[in-house]
Design goal:
This protein has 342 residues and is an alpha/beta fold. The protein is 39% helix and 17% strand. The strands form four sheets. Strands 6-5-7-10-11 form a five-stranded parallel beta sheet, sandwiched between helices. Strand 3 and strand 4 form a beta hairpin. Helix 4 runs parallel beside helix 8 and helix 8 packs parallel to helix 9. It is elongated.
Length: 342
């Protein structure tokens, strides 16, 4: 008597089980062979990791020397001390969102304007905490995504925003030799494409096997950045319309939860333009806008003393930014942080 054939449904189940087992063994082997640092796309940015909707974030528990300053991240992947959760009842918590200036390129954590501001504010009767949620290279859109996906969980009373230059940076290049070198979209467009598959991408970005395979593809022949097969993209990472949309998104998130929103107008050696976006948003939303360039001009400090380079303030520059923010906030009167008083 011939044995009964195995039902097709069971064959499929067996095949999937074997495939899953092989994948698990391969993933375990990949984790034994390669660390997170071994698998980064850019070996000079080992403190960053890929994120589906944020595009990238800092890895938790980093402790390295970087470009002449010390970089240490907490368990949440922020350049800050460990953050108490839930928030202590009597503490006023400010969530400071921004780019590499907020993050503190070239200066120690305690020298960043956020930490200096924390000290200035706490010299009174209130217990203030300023959380440094800045990330190098971030745009306004990335900070809006961070606020919705992670920042609100930190229970901020105030959100403080510092963004301008990265929004206007060019997107990158397209290389026809290597399909992974594709940066044709704005941050907002990339977010909208990735969000429906964010859970799948999150799993892939945590898989050492996938990241190793991606590295191999990226090492295939490529003529970047000078090849005739690559096309430079000069369009900005965010259009003015997308910047406006991100600002109103942040405003909505704050308004729904009774959070005070403060917008900082950044300072740079060479201003990137699009001033009207921040000005119009602040006027239409009745959001406080602290104009740092005007305060810098009034202070008389030289660019040599204020900047480390074309973008980033020195420790002295950070101290002045904190002082100007403090003065502007105090001028709003007692309880300026309480949005429910509006």
């Amino acid at each position: 008597m011939r044995p009964s054939p195995i039902p097709i449904r069971r064959r499929i189940l067996y095949s999937l089980s074997i495939l899953m087992l092989v994948s698990m063994v391969a993933e375990a082997g990949a984790r034994l062979i390669w660390s997170d640092e071994d698998l980064v796309m850019n070996p000079t940015l080992t403190y960053l990791r890929d994120e589906p909707t944020l595009l990238w974030s800092m890895r938790p528990q980093v402790d390295i020397e970087l470009d002449g300053f010390h970089l240490q991240t907490n368990s949440l992947g922020l350049r800050d001390h460990e953050i108490a959760q839930p928030k202590p009842e009597d503490r006023v918590r400010i969530l400071s969102l921004g780019e590499s200036t907020t993050w503190g390129h070239g200066v120690a954590l305690e020298e960043t304007y956020g930490k200096v501001l924390e000290t200035l504010l706490s010299s009174g009767n209130e217990d203030f905490e300023v959380i440094n949620a800045g990330v190098a290279g971030y745009t306004t859109w990335q900070s809006a995504v961070y606020l919705e996906e992670r920042g609100l969980d930190l229970q901020p009373d105030v959100v403080m925003l510092y963004h301008l230059k990265n929004d206007s940076l060019p997107r990158g290049v397209i290389d026809e030799n290597n399909f992974l070198y594709q940066v044709p979209y704005t941050d907002a467009e990339t977010y909208r494409m990735r969000r429906p598959v964010r859970y799948l991408l999150s799993g892939l970005y945590r898989s050492h096997l996938y990241l190793r395979l991606r590295q191999a593809v990226l090492r295939l022949p490529s003529d970047l950045p000078d090849a005739a097969t690559s096309r430079e993209r000069h369009e900005p990472r965010m259009t003015p319309e997308e910047r406006t949309e991100a600002l109103w998104w942040i405003h909505k998130l704050c308004s729904e939860r009774g959070i005070r929103l403060i917008v900082l107008f950044p300072t740079y050696h060479q201003h990137p333009g699009h001033d009207y976006v921040l000005r119009d948003f602040a006027r239409l939303s009745d959001t406080p806008l602290i104009r740092l360039p005007e305060r810098k001009a009034a202070s008389g400090i030289s660019n040599e003393a204020y900047y480390l380079d074309e973008v980033h303030p020195s420790a002295e520059g950070h101290a002045l930014i904190a002082q100007w923010i403090h003065e502007a906030l105090e001028a709003q009167g007692p309880g300026w942080w309480d949005a429910s008083g509006d």
